[in-house]
Amino acid sequence: MSTFIAGRDLNRRFYLEVVLPLLNTSFPQLNYAAALLGPGSETLGLDSEMSMDHDWGLHFFLFLQEQDAHLGNTIANILSQQLPSTFLDIPVSFPVEPIEPRTRIMKRPTDGPINHRIIPITVRNFVRIQLGFDLAQPLEAADWLTFPSHALGEIVAGEVYHDATGELSALRSQLSWYPRDIWLYLLAAGWQRIGQEEHLMPRAGYMNDELGSALIGSRLVRDVMRLGFLMEKRYAPYAKWFGTAFTRLHCAQSLGPILWRAQQASSWKEREEALCRAYEQLAHMHNALGLTQKLPETVSPFFERPFQVIHGELFAQALLKQISDPAVQRIARQRLIGNIDQWSDNTDIEGLERAKLRSLYS
């Protein structure tokens, strides 16, 4: 196996040293963008030597303007005839069929055209595939709430090697973060989740159900982490990279050790103490944003019971009061379910028709 090179760097060199000269020769007047976006650890800059075993290698998108879309097959065919079989001793070709479902592995071709993965596509078609959304339609609140966070992040992350049209850069700017009122709604939904379960963790432990308490505690840890992403305006990736990406947040330096103590706690009282410190840190972060009036940053008893909570629902209601967009206000008046990431972690949910997902907000 070749020496590992980070996918972003590898594909930048491949574009500049190989693909760009070929395009300049065959299509000197073509205006396009070239970028490494979409699914894949290399898009997030999280690839490693292990990533080389599947769906990794020399690949990126060539974004064509709509009037040039008809050139896609021609460009792909010319590249298949002119690309080298290897670059930096890495095979350029991928198998026609995946070795396993959704899995492709680089291979050295014996002869014939190169089955490359330099994919000509329009920005509009890319968004159709990545988000299930047609850019010809207005972008509404229900759309933002049914776009998976990781799918948005895979557009904003990655690297653009060239953009002569500005279309791709405009898209990335448009999707760089949620509109303000959508953001407020998501923050409120995150705090609501904490308010719904923060008292359940110690209650289960109080009944000597340490396994159940630990399970609820883990859910709360994840909710705290999700709020960290939201407060720092960073799209959270899917489960495999969730914890790794969290370590890159500013809040991870203080929150990370506290949350790890909550995960490792052997008793509900230890777990409660750690989670309470996390809630207080989160409340401090909330107040620093200046989105609402200042709210309490210390835990207090859950009514008359011997459990300490931050009362997440108070933060949720304070945030909802700041929403001014009528469409988001209407959604917020319903049950506070948040977005697709907050109400389900079933990956197959993303494959449903977007009309069905949008209906949850109608």
From TrEMBL:
Entry superkingdom: Bacteria
Family matches, as InterPro entries: DUF4037
Pfam families tied to this protein: DUF4037
Location of the DUF4037 domain: 144-242
Record-given protein name: DUF4037 domain-containing protein
Species of origin: Ktedonosporobacter rubrisoli
